[in-house]
Amino acid sequence: MLEINKIRNQTKDYSEALKKRGIDKIDDQLNTVILLDDQRKSLKSQLDNILTESNSLSKEIGVNIHSGNTAKIENLKKRSSELKENSKKISEALKETESKIKNILIDIPNVPDNKVPDGNSDKNNTIISSSDIKSFKNKKLKPHWDLIKEFNIIDFETGNNVTGAGFPVYINKGAKLQRALINYFLDEANKSGYNEIQPPILVNENSAFGTGQLPDKEGQMYKIENENLFLIPTAEVPVTNFYNKKILDKSILPIKNVAYTPCFRKEAGSWGSHVRGLNRLHQFDKVEIVQIEDRNKSSDALEEMCNYVEGLIKSLEISHRKLLLCAGDLGFSSSITYDFEVYAPGQKKWLECSSVSNFKTYQSNRMNLKIKEGKEKNLANTLNGSALALPRIVAAILETHQADDEIIIPEVLHSYTGFQKITL
Fold first, then answer.
1. What is the pLDDT of residues 114-129, one digit of tens each?
2. What percent of the chain has pLDDT over 90?
3. Do residues 344 and 253 make contact, with C-beta atoms less than 8 angstroms apart?
4. CA 226, CA 337: separation in Å to the nearest integer?
5. Among the listed residues 286, 293, 309, the one whose alpha carbon sits nearest the alpha carbon of residue 256
6. Which of 343, 340, 344 is nearest to 352 (CA)?
7. Which residue, 382, 235, 387, 383, is CA-closest to 307?
8. β-strand 126-131 against 320-324: which pairing, if any?
9. pLDDT reported for residue 404
């Protein structure tokens, strides 16, 4: 959620930046927020004056009771009663004004960073870097949905019978490969200074609001009816919300956490090769890294996280590329995002496997997460990234390392899988 003082002080800059996202009526929203904030300040001042007068009256009533001045006491009590009634009305008006401000702010996305390019869709994203791993020289490379049947490592049919489409069952060496990737990703994160956490996979409405999933992505989340709980779309939600309403001493920064969780999203509903097989699922496994950092160091933290994710992908011997998302393709809460895509040669398609984002103060303002340095308390900067999401990584590994009658496992995983290849 945007900070009102920054909207007030940087109105023109915010307007221009948010228009890059394609928001045409942003000027009306920003100006309305400023006007409502003026009303809020006026109402708050009136309440403060009433409180001051009420305190003075209480002391004066006490003095007159002691002196026995009955007539004056009655007038003072009458005035005190009037103040209480006015205080109630003004308090109600203040709550209504604050609610109006919040309702506008929660519908305004984060302001794009100055580095974010213009553009309305993923076609306008900028390729920052890439690497190309040559696949085995098969006459015709197969897509992973054919390979998983041929090598009997993932069972979509059983998952469909047990739950529904988008819930695969990993079997045999497919299950072991899945576990190997999770353990490898966690171990590498630990080596890079991330503290491992096993969070809940259900969160309440307040947590989902804190990281920006609500109300923006409510339609993509699975809700537990009558319990106000949601299955997490990413570990970012519970892990970042560990610090909801916290005041952190600057000396303990950066805070670096990593978590493995299953993730749940209602996004696998369309048809076509782009959602076939492992390309898009309702349930999938992911290792997530999260950082809490000071505002002056979060840009460096973002670069460090990107370098870490890129190194992780390279170690798996699959082609990849790094993209800077344009304003129109940014997530609602993000100020700047780098996507990492891996190439699946059997499909001849690039697949997103990680997004690394700096939310700056957008999430921390929703969560009231602050950093204390001396007497100052400032909103923290929050960052997160997938390190990594498994389904598309598995798809790229299978398609890249397929031979005629085997699939070669990347060397870094050998000690985790216990085998070096998957054979027929």
1. 999 999 999 999 999 9
2. 86
3. no
4. 35
5. 293
6. 340
7. 387
8. antiparallel
9. 86
